[in-house]
Design goal:
This protein has 312 residues and is mostly helical. Helix content is 82%, strand content 2%. It is built from 10 helices and 2 strands. It has helices at residues 2-38, 43-71, 79-111, 117-123, 126-155, 170-187, 189-215, 223-253, 261-285, 287-304, and strands spanning 76-78, 162-164. It has a two-stranded antiparallel ribbon. It is globular and about 70 Å long. 29% of the residues are buried.
Length: 312
């Protein structure tokens, strides 16, 4: 019975990863085609494209690690192999989180309206602020990699230079749980906090704008209010998915007697929902991507019915 449950959970994880790769691949393809066609690409589309590629890299790395753990559950991993796996996970996850945070920062600076001198200065240099934030995050990437490699070097001696790649074993679970604490418990919370801060400030900006409109006797929504609400809708969904992602990671970190392979697979399903589901949110929140996606669905519908599109 446990084998059937585990196989079902693995299948769900793989489906999530495949759908996530398709969604992020669609975002990257549409923006790259637009770039080739127009010979230029906007800052927001640059962020979306880079974010899509980082998510694809992250999902493929997770899929590879998952496949290895299923096919070779008793595989012996050396120090070099562990460092290689963790580097790919750290690198892709770092840019996945920070590019999403930079996207939230970009929306905030473009849409929000404050009279503060610092905000006005940042607003007039939004591209430089986003680029600078991403560049400064590289220092955290270097520190994260350094700390985890130091931990691996220090701990591998306890396991005589190798470790079984089996999450159901106590030694493996303890080893990778510590890596999760360093990587996700410390470093990925920084871009998440930045995203939530911009989210709260955008809500405050909308409240101030609504108060100002009400004071001047204007009712209904104007273009600025609509921009606020549209951005907030995307950011709310991102916050929920990101919260589920962190909850799933900390559930794996938390020591419990339920720490078995089925428990791990359930956490993986919840964690995979963030990089996979966020692509759907981005497609829905972007007019160009949404129209392109609807066009593809229409084309697929026509092909399945074996009807020429011009006949509809």
């Amino acid at each position: 019975m446990d084998d059937i449950i585990q196989s079902t959970l693995i299948f769900i994880v793989i489906v999530e990863i495949v759908l996530g790769c398709l969604g992020n691949g669609f975002i990257a393809l549409v923006n790259c085609l637009e770039w080739v066609k127009r010979r230029k690409i906007s800052t927001v589309n640059q962020l979306l494209t880079a974010l899509a590629f980082s998510r694809i890299a992250l999902l493929l790395t997770v899929l590879t690690a998952l496949s290895v753990s299923i096919r070779y559950s008793d595989m012996v991993m050396t120090r070099r192999v562990i460092k290689l796996i963790n580097f790919h996970l750290i690198f892709s996850n770092h840019f996945s989180m920070w590019l999403a945070a930079c996207l939230s920062l970009f929306y905030f600076l473009k849409i929000a309206n404050f009279s503060n001198t610092i905000f006005v200065y940042l607003k007039t240099r939004v591209n430089q602020v986003v680029s600078g934030t991403l560049l400064m995050s590289l220092a955290l990437l270097f520190l994260n990699t350094l700390l985890i490699n130091s931990y691996i070097d220090a701990q591998m001696g306890r396991y005589r230079g190798y470790l079984l790649y089996d999450f159901s074993s106590n030694s493996s679970a303890e080893f990778f749980r510590a890596i999760l604490i360093i990587n996700d418990g410390i470093f990925t919370t920084i871009p998440f906090t930045l995203s939530q801060l911009t989210f709260l400030l955008l809500i405050f900006s909308l409240w101030r704008h609504h108060k100002k409109m009400k004071k001047h006797g204007q009712r209904g929504r104007d273009a600025r209010a609509n921009a606020h609400i549209k951005a907030l809708q995307t950011m709310i969904t991102y916050a929920l998915l990101c919260a589920i992602f962190f909850l799933a990671l900390f559930m794996q970190i938390w020591r419990t007697e339920l720490m078995n392979i089925i428990y791990i697979r359930l956490c993986q399903i919840a964690a995979a929902a963030f990089p996979s589901g966020h692509s759907c949110v981005l497609i829905h929140g972007n007019t160009k991507l949404r129209q392109a996606f609807l066009s593809v669905l229409w084309w697929v519908r026509c092909r399945l019915k074996d009807i020429h599109p011009m006949a509809l």
